[in-house]
Design a protein that fits this description.
It contains ten helices and 14 strands. The protein is globular. The two termini are 12 Å apart. The strands form two sheets. It has an eight-stranded mixed β-sheet with strand order 5-4-3-2-1-12-13-14, sandwiched between helices. The chain folds into two domains: 151 residues, Rossmann fold (3-Layer(aba) Sandwich); 105 residues, Hypothetical Protein, Haloacid Dehalogenase-like Hydrolase, Chain: A, domain 2, CATH 3.30.1240. 34% of the residues lie in helices and 23% in strands. The protein is of the alpha/beta class and 270 residues long. InterPro entries: Cof (IPR000150), HAD-like_sf (IPR036412), HAD-SF_hydro_IIB (IPR006379), HAD_sf (IPR023214).
Length: 270
């Protein structure tokens, strides 16, 4: 097995347990990884501001983060790579939503910022979950601005409406845009090049590493491409069976410090 020189890890259900607490042994491992010059990169659907407190707690703010499932890879304010939603398709989508699905809450993510038309109940729930505060603005005007790059949309409503919306969008022509459910009532929208696998490839290029020198760790279906692509793909013990069968190794669950155990076993064992 190759010597691992880069670790890419999911956050929720991976380094965080079911009570949203950090793997209790990770903090003591971070200085050892830094000493060995092994970056520990967090990759998540979260925004940069949603990842920042965890990165700070781990003491790894000098390492890149892959936000919005890899739509934006950055170190501090420095952008390493980004994939924004095609502007033409974005405007068509916004026009369609306002006319045909007016109850859907449209949440726009651009860089570190979260924009909404109004503080509806769905926005308030999301703010409570993430601890972030959105900026209220005219989305129609904001999206029209050519300079405003949009990394993700989050569309929220009741589950039945979001399912109907997803089925309707599948029949429409959005060749450069991906739509996927992150919850039964959350529809995420990104450029179709965005994935944690693509983020891994871009980070491999940034650090000039071969895939065999990278370990990835995750617990869910959207982590599968990343787990399959890395030289050492590790699934969490709490991952579904379909995820585990794609991995080279399966570690303990997120409630049993599975990530720190994998790092000790496969990266810092020598």
């Amino acid at each position: 097995m190759s010597v691992i020189k880069l670790i890419i890890s999911d956050i929720d259900g991976t380094i965080l347990d079911q009570n949203h607490q950090l793997d209790s042994h990770l903090l003591e491992l971070m200085p050892l990884l830094k000493q060995s010059e092994i970056p520990f990169v967090l990759a998540s659907a979260r925004s940069p501001l949603g990842i920042a407190p965890i990165s700070k707690e781990l003491g790894i703010t000098d390492f890149p983060i892959a936000s919005y499932n890899g739509a934006l890879i950055s170190t501090g304010d420095k952008i390493l790579s980004q994939h924004s939603i095609n502007k033409k398709e974005l405007l068509l989508l916004h026009d369609f939503l306002t006319k045909e699905f007016p109850t859907v809450s449209i949440n726009v993510y651009s860089g570190k910022d979260w924009y909404v038309n109004t503080l509806d109940k769905w926005v308030e729930i999301e703010a409570q979950i993430t601890g972030e505060s959105p900026k209220v603005t005219s989305l129609a005007d904001f999206l029209q601005e050519e300079k405003n790059l949009i990394h993700k949309l989050l569309l929220i409503d009741n589950a039945a409406t979001i399912q109907k919306l997803k089925e309707t969008l599948a029949t429409m022509d959005f060749p450069q845009t991906d739509f996927y459910l992150s919850k039964d009532n959350y529809l995420e929208v990104t450029h179709n090049q965005v994935s944690k696998k693509q983020a891994l490839l871009e980070l491999a290029n940034y650090y000039q590493l071969s895939l065999t020198e990278i370990m990835s760790i995750g617990d869910n279906y959207n982590d599968i491409p990343m787990i399959e692509t890395a030289g050492l793909g590790v699934a969490m013990g709490n991952a579904p069976t379909d995820v585990k069968v794609c991995a080279n190794k399966v570690t303990d669950s997120n409630d049993q410090n599975g990530v720190s155990k994998a790092i000790k076993l496969y990266v810092l064992s020598e």
